[in-house]
Amino acid sequence: MVFRMSARDALGAIDADPSREGCVARQHALRAALLERGLKAALIVQPSHITYLFGLYGWRAIPAAAVVGVDGDAVLAIGVSCPAEPETAKLVRYEDCRFTTLRDEREALAVAAVVECLPSAGRIGVDSHGQPFALRAREVAPIGDALTTLRRRKHPDEIARIERAVSATEAGYEAAAAIIRPGLIETDLFAAFLAAATRAAGEPIGELGSDFRGGAPGGRSRQMPLAEGDLLPLDAGAVVGGYTADLCRTFAVSGEFTPAQRDAFSAVRDALIFAKTIIRPGVSCRAVFRTLHQRLDGYRGWRFDHHLGHGIGLCAHEAPRLNPHWDDVFQEGDVFTLEPGLYGDDLRAGVRLEEDYALTSDGLRQLSSYPLDPQSAFGSPAARMNGQH
Fold first, then answer.
1. 49, 67, 34, 31: which is closest to 129 by C-alpha?
2. How many Cβ atoms are within 10 Å of 373's Cβ, its own excluded?
3. Looking at 198-202, 205-209, 358-362, 363-367, which range is the least confident one?
4. CATH 3.90.230.10 fits 156-385, yes or no
5. Which of 29, 200, 225, 381 is deepest in the core (most CB within 10 A)?
6. Measured between alpha carbons, how far is 265 from 353 in angstroms, rounded to an integer?
7. Torsion over CA of 275, 278, 281 and 287, rounded to 10 degrees?
8. 178-211: per-residue pLDDT in tens?
9. What is the CA radius of gyration of the chain?
10. What would be the CATH architecture of the domain defined by 7-151?
């Protein structure tokens, strides 16, 4: 069977059914992109692209490889030790281990298991940064840009996975909010967040994020206690089903903001609310960044010195990028974050607030719902213990 629809038409050929239908539609979209470039097939080896096209995730130690041709079924090679059995391709197995010991050459073995499925003639697309040795005798063309373009417009099943990641992350915030206090060791905070997010996800949640440091704009947790008077911008995002969330809430370690910290919080919260009102398809991401940067940077001498947001999906940072170094334009199907902030020494770190959104045909839909100021919404741990909330 030969697919003759355009890549744009193929991207629209999906409904809200779960991953199987989504993966099949994404394979069709890739075939359309290959036809537009005069390619006979694609060799897929990047883990994120394997997840995108086949729904396989969580087995990065067992490399997979696939062939997607413009004719016929896709073929996916995974190691014999991988229990997954995706139904979205013809499946072949390669010997990734011997007597339960992993072999060194697993990537090459995965490619070798599918390379014979490539057409005998014609140009081949590759998503790797270099040309695989098995294709040295073939004419190849890079297709990473085509896959990046296809991946930007999120399908309903992809958004559902991101929402699962958001929910898991919010469970982590709920657990963190209940224990944040002066003297709490940062690594203990991280462990509590991780445990709650993992339970909520019902599976290992992948990379969680790195901003668990009190009195600093960000940084990995340390074997150090949280200090009275510090702010804690807690920035994290669970990875569920291969797709990532990315949220930030700022906590007062003592349970209450100082007047200056409260002023900074209000300015950042209001900027976040305002940003949502000016975002729609066709709007320049750089222009939105500049509008918010002008609004925040320098307020009361504080600084806003990082991007305003970025796309999320199979990677923590994707298009669209709300950053003066890129000139992306918002498109329907974008899933992205907004994360304005204000920082200064007198704030004892700073305030950053981050939410996740999907830009749909019905407008901007917020995917996250956890309160921006959980300590005001639920009370500090000490207040809850005393029955004040």
1. 49
2. 17
3. 205-209
4. yes
5. 29
6. 8
7. -80
8. 999 999 999 999 999 999 999 999 999 988 887 9
9. 23
10. 3-Layer(aba) Sandwich (3.40)
Strand pairing category for 247-252 and 243-244: unpaired
First to last CA, the chain: 64
| Buried b / exposed e along 351-365 (16+ C-beta atoms within 10 A) | bbbbbbbbbbeeebe
Listed in sequence order, the DSSP H helices in the chain are 7-11, 19-36, 47-54, 106-115, 144-152, 156-177, 186-201, 259-278, 285-296, 374-378, 381-385
Within 13 Å and on the Cβ side, how many CA atoms surround 248? Answer: 30
The 3-state secondary structure of 26-79 reads HHHHHHHHHHHCCCCEEEECCHHHHHHHHCCCCCCCCCCEEEEECECCCEEEEE
- pTM of the prediction? 0.91
Confirm if 251 and 375 have CB atoms less than 8 A apart: yes
Cβ-proximal residues to 160 (8 Å cutoff; 6+ apart), any chain: 18
Copy the structure tokens of residue 244: 């990532």
For residues 37 and 6, is the Cβ–Cβ distance under 8 A?
Answer: no
Closest CA to 310 of 302, 321, 294, 324: 321
Q: In this predicted model, what pLDDT tens digit does every residue of 82-139 receive, in sequence order?
A: 888 888 899 999 999 999 999 999 999 999 999 999 998 899 999 987 667 677 778 8
